[in-house]
Amino acid sequence: MAFWNKIKNYDTLFFSVLAFFAIYLFCSYNGVGISPDSIMYTSAARNFVAHGNLHTFNHAPIVDFPVFYPTFLGIISFITRIDPTLFGWWLDALMFASLIFCSGWIISRFEPTSHIYKWLILIAIILNPGLLQVYTYLWSETLFILEVLLFMIIFRQYMLQHTVKWLVFAAIIGAVACITRYAAVTIVGTGGLLLLLDRSLPVRKKIGHILIYGFISISLLVANLWFNALHTGTVTGPREPSITPFHKNLYYFGTVFCDWLGFTPNQYFLATPLAVIILAGFIIALVYNFYRRRLSSFENIAITFALVYGLFIVLSSTFSRYERINPRLLSPMYIPALWGYSSWALLVLKRVNNRRVRVAIAALFIAAMLGYITKIFLVDKTRYNDLIADEYGNPGYTDNDWMESEMANYLKTMDKSIFKPKVTIYSDAHEAVYFFSGMSSYLVPHKFFKKDVEKFYQKKHFYLIWFKNLENRELINLTDIKSHKQLKPIKEFGDEGGIYEYNLNSN
């Protein structure tokens, strides 16, 4: 026992170092991955440092995303005097290492726990392809997932002691998370559900604690949404109704778990049944823990969050249109789900008295975990070979396709005087224009918003920077625009796109 107690924290630190090294490996060629969302965060962070506001490159307040992550980047940039695109991989590596350390700390306090179980689970977390993707990009999920674990740690302290101090601390974590990602309302929901189910609280005290927790945890989100509405007229930017029904979103939810379990696309026929089993399993486990009065365990808090978050993603995707359910969207759910569906083995081993049966169950679990770890390791190895060994880089605006792009390199070095002052520049990828040229531009309108399309076609003079390889079906396309406007080519780049001008007075 003395040996195990001695390594209780050193082994967690060891796996944290491995996690840091994993991110270093995947960012070793072209640094942190830069996506359109990354550019939004980065431009707001730069403006925070330079002007003290959170405006994006198009001079408007950041609305589609909450304010804390770009503020977080801006604070680090202000202190270090380094741009987020340069320190991004360091930040991601440190946060991933912190995530693993928090995970190990929590697992060590499972009821019961095991060092072998802990090591296998930490390896499975480090090697999860979804998490490795998230933590190699400048995305707010990197901070949000860490906040989820911090919330679990603090909220468990509250459930053990039922003091207002710990309740307020948990609510503050929830409040900050809500302005990191809007999906953090699931943290608020998780805490609220556990408070409602907690039978050890007297009714009057329960009501008071729910009110305190609810008021504090949504306070910053309400302030953020109020600011958005005041300055832009929308609370979270323009949103379109969903085009995917509930059953389709349930299927997409299941395909992500198929990927995480090492299934191939040929086995996606299992996606919907798997999604139903996973969500139903969380519900059954929560009900079981409620009747067994085991709500305060880390395992139960994790199960509750996984259930609330999973349902939120499926249901919100059914009513509002955003990117299709994918590993990035479900990444905050991976660790809680892994804990929820693996910790049962510890409970079974604790209750089995027959030594041979215990050894058999333990061997079966270890074999299953090693098989799973091998599968995801091979996925990671393939990704590493494709992106790093073959010198391509993390997909995004710093990968080889863009670095070797004639159009991107022209935007970096062009004479900006070709654009007349005060004439609006439009693009189908306005974030790409900013990333490569530093210029502000505006997105061409979505087809769904008819009034915006009409206003666009009423413009008498504008410039258009069009990226053919980024064409978005939800936006009006180049063919549509050319059917309404006689565009004058300024510079064309074959299949890559071109720069155009429309001036009614010169036609």
UniProtKB/TrEMBL annotation:
<feature type="transmembrane region" description="Helical">
    <location>
        <begin position="268"/>
        <end position="288"/>
    </location>
</feature>
<feature type="transmembrane region" description="Helical">
    <location>
        <begin position="143"/>
        <end position="160"/>
    </location>
</feature>
<feature type="transmembrane region" description="Helical">
    <location>
        <begin position="209"/>
        <end position="227"/>
    </location>
</feature>
<feature type="transmembrane region" description="Helical">
    <location>
        <begin position="119"/>
        <end position="138"/>
    </location>
</feature>
<feature type="transmembrane region" description="Helical">
    <location>
        <begin position="12"/>
        <end position="32"/>
    </location>
</feature>
<feature type="transmembrane region" description="Helical">
    <location>
        <begin position="331"/>
        <end position="349"/>
    </location>
</feature>
<keyword id="KW-0812">Transmembrane</keyword>
<feature type="transmembrane region" description="Helical">
    <location>
        <begin position="361"/>
        <end position="379"/>
    </location>
</feature>
<feature type="transmembrane region" description="Helical">
    <location>
        <begin position="300"/>
        <end position="319"/>
    </location>
</feature>
<feature type="transmembrane region" description="Helical">
    <location>
        <begin position="87"/>
        <end position="107"/>
    </location>
</feature>
<keyword id="KW-1133">Transmembrane helix</keyword>
<feature type="transmembrane region" description="Helical">
    <location>
        <begin position="62"/>
        <end position="80"/>
    </location>
</feature>
<feature type="transmembrane region" description="Helical">
    <location>
        <begin position="166"/>
        <end position="197"/>
    </location>
</feature>
<protein>
    <recommendedName>
        <fullName>Dolichyl-phosphate-mannose-protein mannosyltransferase</fullName>
    </recommendedName>
</protein>
<keyword id="KW-0472">Membrane</keyword>
